[in-house]
């Protein structure tokens, strides 16, 4: 599952340039019984299988260079992964990601082995592998030189708790749909103001939860008040 995710695109390039490295391990290699079984039926009875503690402990103990290496279990029951977590992970020398499978993972892994249980969203995947790739991808963008200009990470959606403003490229007129005049005016101050305004507006409409946790500057607050008042005005007119 990891082949093309680790060889193609920006992540593939970064690995080629040795800006990061990813080692994939097979839990089965750490099973000790003759069938190399990594899962078993849950005590107490319920449908599905549970990942056994033995192979997971053995794998982590084999892989981890020091006790300090954080170990994350990917699971829908975990803390939500976000840009802040990605940036923190990028600052670690090494991290270990355990991909859960089956109905669950033996609780002793969660209690005594891992640093945190991490979820990439409120839905259940068939396994943690895709989630691990999401984490590798989002985290690698915070490693210096992985993404072209480092400023493009700092101003991305979420890094400032705002969604990114709209972007346009040529042609200026596409099938009668025109690029906003300000963006082609060359007036950088006005362009910046336009971008901030549209970031605020997009965030307010689509992700008000992001705005609720962000502390706005006076200028931003005034702009947001304006946007909200304008919308109220428009609603009135349209009635
Ligand atoms: N494994 C299954 N579902 C998951 C999710 N939402 N996030 C991380 N790992 C998972």
Q: How are the strands of the biggest sheet laid out side by side?
A: 1-2-5
Write the H/E string, N to C.
HHEEHEHEEHEHHEEHHH
Oligomer state of the chains in this structure: single chain
Number of strands: 8
CATH topology of the largest domain: Alpha/beta knot
Which architecture of the largest domain would the CATH scheme give at its second level? 3-Layer(aba) Sandwich
In the residues, how many domains can be counted? 2
The end-to-end span amounts to 54 Å
**Mean pLDDT value:** 93
Give the C-level CATH assignment of the largest domain. Alpha Beta
Specify the overall morphology: elongated
Radius of gyration from CA coordinates: 23 Å
If helices are DSSP runs of H or I spanning 4 or more residues, what is the number of helices?
10
The helicity comes to 40-55%
The structure class reads alpha/beta
Strand content: 5-15%
Largest β-sheet summary: 3 strands, mixed
Low-confidence parts, pLDDT < 50 over ≥5 residues? none
Heteromolecules bound: adenine
Describe the protein:
There is one protein chain. The longest helix has 21 residues, at 218-238. The chain has 239 residues and is an alpha/beta fold. Strand 7 and strand 8 form a beta hairpin. The chain is 42% helix and 12% strand. The protein starts with a helix and ends with a helix. Helix 4 (83-90) packs across helix 6 (129-140). The protein contains ten helices and eight strands. It has a three-stranded mixed β-sheet. It has a three-stranded parallel β-sheet with strand order 4-3-6, with helices on both faces. The model has no long low-confidence stretch (mean pLDDT 93). It is elongated and about 70 Å long. The protein folds into two domains: 9-140, Alpha/beta knot, CATH 3.40.1280; 173-238, tRNA(m1g37)methyltransferase, domain 2 (Trp Operon Repressor, Chain A, Orthogonal Bundle), CATH 1.10.1270.20. The chain has helices at residues 3-7, 9-16, 53-63, 83-90, 107-112, 129-140, 151-154, 188-206, 208-213, 218-238, and strands at 39-40, 50-51, 71-80, 96-99, 104-105, 116-119, 173-174, 177-178. The site of adenine has 12 residues, from strand 3.
């Amino acid at each position: 599952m990891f082949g093309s995710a680790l060889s193609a695109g920006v992540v593939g390039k970064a690995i080629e340039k040795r800006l990061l490295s990813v080692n994939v391990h097979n839990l089965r290699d750490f099973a000790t019984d003759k069938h190399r079984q990594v899962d078993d039926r849950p005590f107490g009875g319920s449908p599905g299988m549970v990942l056994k503690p033995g192979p997971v402990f053995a794998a982590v103990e084999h892989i981890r260079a020091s006790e300090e290496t954080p170990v994350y279990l990917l699971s829908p029951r975990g803390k939500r992964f976000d840009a802040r977590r990605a940036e923190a992970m990028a600052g670690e020398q090494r991290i270990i990601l355990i991909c859960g499978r089956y109905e669950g993972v033996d609780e002793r892994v969660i209690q005594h082995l891992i640093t945190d249980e991490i979820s990439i969203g409120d839905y259940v995947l068939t396994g943690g592998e895709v989630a691990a790739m999401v984490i590798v991808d989002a985290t690698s963008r915070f490693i210096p030189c992985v993404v072209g200009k480092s400023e493009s990470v700092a101003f991305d959606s979420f890094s400032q708790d705002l969604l990114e403003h709209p972007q346009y490229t040529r042609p200026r007129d596409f099938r009668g749909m025109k690029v906003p005049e300000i963006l082609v005016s060359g007036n950088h101050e006005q362009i910046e103001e336009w971008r901030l305004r549209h970031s605020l507006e997009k965030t307010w409409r689509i992700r008000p939860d992001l705005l609720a946790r962000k502390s706005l500057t006076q200028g931003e607050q005034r702009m947001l008040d304006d946007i909200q008042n304008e919308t109220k005005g428009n609603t009135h007119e349209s009635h």
